[in-house]
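Input.
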Amino acid sequence: MTLWIPDHTGMTSYDEPFAITYVTFTEYDMSPIPKYDPPRDAVETQIATIWAQKLGAPQVGIHDGFTDLGGHSVQAAELVAQIAAQFGLRNVNQELLRLGTVADQAAFIKTQLPR
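Output.
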């Protein structure tokens, strides 16, 4: 098979066997759009606000994942330090890093706050 190439490429023809890969630009991501779950109480609201500021997101739902929103390790370290300082907690950074959603972090923080 001979492929004729336009003159402006500097080549006139290509006689080697080749495969044409057909790539469509009409493929769609049909996964459902994530539902926004707003904060339910003051603790979740404070955490979601800190997340939104740190990630530059317009809104953060309580079930949104930190890395799904574009967060990376440096932001995570800064984020948990800011959350711990906001609630006056000490020695909780490792646990907060392990918890990846606002809801999980809020549930943990509620167990650490004095009653």
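The chain has four helices and two strands.
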